[in-house]
């Protein structure tokens, strides 16, 4: 199929790609502002403005490419019958937010398909978007921080970057992004020979900050490798905004989430159902949404930890002896729970803040014995598993100060840190004859249960995806 997208929008092109639809992007080079002004002068309805602009784009490109299928798209923001365009100045953006704050507006997305210079199909979707009331300070902060992106979007916001600005959304994620991919795929399947396309499933990783996350790279690779129609994105959610934002994203059709700091405990609390391991750990890193909108919270960190060790240390058996775990944070809780479940007979837990370790041990299991941080080396000769769950030794962090000279040479030593790939802690352990396992495998394996739940395929963890996340 020869399909042309009559747009230079990288977002629309990515949506087509997510649906495994190959298209060439061509700029239609129409004067949108003049056409819109003319239509508004004629008191045209906002939906007619969007439809006319989409048709102008498709028609112009189709005239030059009559044998191709040409897709034209446009979107307008309608508030109380007035069309809001892209803000030209920061003052325009400020006034737009003042008008939209606390109110419901409509995003009207028009799609028109041309073939042989004739209109073959058209579709209009309407998404209802309700914004939270914004204070003057919040508006000023947004204008200052978001102007580079805001000036390119109708109304001055990018929903995919700022869903926390909204209290309710009734619409489809891709319609809101500017292209009605579900109806487009359905039309192509019915009218273009050989077409078999599906609307993409959307999942996201939520955190604050989130720009550093490797999850989009990892899941994007699995989507591409398995030729799955899907999209996985990173969204920065400020502290305290998770509950309402997840509700809004589900309203837009997002079917699943990974959750990272600082939201893991809140993610567990917002769920309708909790897996036993998520309950035991007291935090969730994976949320699965069913067709009714109900949320199941899971924690796959422990699964990723154990699977990484089993895959990369074939002679390691958790039942063979005691374990020493360093650190008592969220990752430690997942590691401790998984070691107990795997059959470790005893676990020594050491943390720089002693009371925190005692609290974790009390909540999780009597098999955990808390020891002073200064005494951790005394137990090295007696354990068969040693785990660093702290950030000590990570690039840019203080080193993990520990003397492994007394360690059991048959012990397996692992570090959840994976930057650098082999930490000084692992280098030292290897020098004393221990088998060592790096932390990147835990990151990869913990992602597989969520991917399978959202996209229906269990992905393969291999050297290719490992190399991608380590770039």
Instruction: Give the C-alpha Rg.
Output: 26 Å
Ranges where pLDDT stays below 50 over 5 or more residues in a row are none
Structural class of the secondary elements?
alpha/beta
**What is the first-to-last residue Cα distance?**
35 Å
Number of strands: 19
Q: Specify the biggest β-sheet.
A: 7 strands, mixed
CATH class of the largest domain: Alpha Beta
What general form does the structure show?
elongated
Q: What's the overall average pLDDT, rounded? A: 95
Q: Look up the CATH topology of the largest domain.
A: Maf protein
Beta content comes to 15-25%
Query: What portion of residues is helical?
Result: 25-40%
Whole-number count of domains: 3
Q: What descriptive keywords fit this protein?
A:
elongated, alpha/beta, 3 domains, 471 residues, Rossmann fold, Maf protein
